[in-house]
Amino acid sequence: MTDSKARIAILGASGYTGAELVRLLVRHPRVDIVALTADRKAGQSMAEVFPQFAPLSLPTLITIDEVDWSSVDLAFCALPHGTTQQVIKRVFETAPHIKIVDLSADFRLTDAGAYEQWYGHPHQALELQQEAVYGLAELYRDDIRKARLVANPGCYTTTAILPVVPLIEAGAIEPDHIVIDAKSGVTGAGRSAKESLLFSEVADGMNAYGVGGHRHMAELDQEFSKAAGRTIVPSFTPHLIPMSRGIYNTIYLKTGAGVGAEGVHRVLADFYRGEAFVHVLPLGQVPHSRFVKGSNMAFIGVIKDRAPDRVIVIATTDNLVKGASGQAVQNMNLVLGFPEATGLEQIALFP
Ligand SMILES: NC(=O)C1=CN([C@@H]2O[C@H](COP(=O)(O)OP(=O)(O)OC[C@H]3O[C@@H](n4cnc5c(N)ncnc54)[C@H](OP(=O)(O)O)[C@@H]3O)[C@@H](O)[C@H]2O)C=CC1
Ligand SMILES: CC(=O)N[C@@H](CCC(=O)OP(=O)(O)O)C(=O)O
């Protein structure tokens, strides 16, 4: 990219991750937002949909068909999965020069059969599925730099892959004994009204869902198996809890012989030394979801279990930032050749 600013479109700007992209990008020094799209809310101003943006001058929400692609360098796609693959296929046909960072699940799985199994229909853009690069910068930075289509990982999976993959690769844990007890805030489900997301049903209670079969398992299987060089099938149970933002994964692991919590901590501290967005706490320290709320950070704690061959690793992110839009901006920075942390320096909102 030259000194001129990159021109950015956000597809799905009237949703939660779209709004979070706007929040981050309006203060990014190297980009201009030139197009914002919506579906039901097309025609409205951003201030009508999200009054917090009223002081800013932003483009009006339009439909995807109304976007002038000749004036766009990079598009973020913050649309529902299933819809996204058709939209991106069409965009590339119209405007092959565009780079895309996709926040949906549509291009994360490299195996067409796995996609069909977990999402219930054949993929509509198989060539693009093969081309897409999995957008976890801490693991795939060099590939992301060269990509035209980046598949941003899911929020639960980001918060599980960051702590677990380096441990599998180092041989520090037994990969057949991975148990992920995951909690999500309500914004993880998007802004569309659903009965199960009413205050009266979410506040003052909690529930597990997708038990034994949540679609993010496919992403975990893919990345853990790749790290281990053989098929790995972790246990993963997500829970919806009464907070607005945040993923909180408590992960139970069995360590390799003689490794222990100290060894696990050493592997993670070494792996993430120098990384801007992953912080490994001192051994024994427990993270709080508020340590990351509003920031692009993942915090990881390593805690001894009572048995010497077991360890508890706790990882937390903000689902809308490192779990979605912040990570997407991190990927945009790599794709466009900007310093990776540009526009992502916010510290968490605490308390
Ligand atoms: N929320 C989260 O924490 C995370 C979400 N993701 C993924 O990111 C994507 C966006 O999620 P999120 O922001 O939460 O979702 P929301 O439901 O909040 O927003 C969806 C957006 O897509 C638009 N839209 C819906 N259907 C269509 C359609 N058929 N054609 C064009 N536009 C459409 C909506 O427009 P309108 O408002 O006008 O209807 C809205 O702008 C999803 O794929 C989600 O799975 C990934 C990681 C974390
Ligand atoms: C609380 C809640 O409902 N969360 C969503 C996950 C959100 C997400 O990460 O969706 P992607 O697959 O697009 O990444 C769910 O469990 O389906």
Automatic annotation (TrEMBL):
Which positions are catalytic residues? C155
Which E.C. number(s) belong to this protein?
1.2.1.38
**UniProt key word Transport:** no
Q: Where is the signal peptide?
A: none
Alphabetized GO MF terms:
N-acetyl-gamma-glutamyl-phosphate reductase activity
Sorted alphabetically, the keyword list is: Amino-acid biosynthesis, Arginine biosynthesis, Cytoplasm, NADP, Oxidoreductase
Task: Kindly indicate whether the keyword Nucleotide-binding belongs to this entry.
Answer: no
| Family annotation (InterPro entries) | AGPR, AGPR_AS, AGPR_dimerisation_dom, AGPR_type-1, NAD(P)-bd_dom_sf, Semialdehyde_DH_NAD-bd
Which EC class heads this enzyme's classification? oxidoreductase
Query: Domain of life of the organism in this record?
Result: Bacteria
Where is this protein chiefly located? Answer: cytoplasm
Where is it located? Cytoplasm
Q: Which reaction does it catalyse?
A: N-acetyl-L-glutamate 5-semialdehyde + phosphate + NADP(+) = N-acetyl-L-glutamyl 5-phosphate + NADPH + H(+)
Copy the pathway line from the protein's UniProt record: Amino-acid biosynthesis; L-arginine biosynthesis; N(2)-acetyl-L-ornithine from L-glutamate: step 3/4
Locate the Semialdehyde dehydrogenase NAD-binding domain: which residues? Answer: 7-147
- Cited function: Catalyzes the NADPH-dependent reduction of N-acetyl-5-glutamyl phosphate to yield N-acetyl-L-glutamate 5-semialdehyde.
Per the similarity annotation, which family is this? Belongs to the NAGSA dehydrogenase family. Type 1 subfamily.
Q: What is this protein called?
A: N-acetyl-gamma-glutamyl-phosphate reductase
Q: Which species does the entry assign this protein to?
A: Ancylobacter amanitiformis
Q: What is the lineage of its organism?
A: Bacteria, Pseudomonadati, Pseudomonadota, Alphaproteobacteria, Hyphomicrobiales
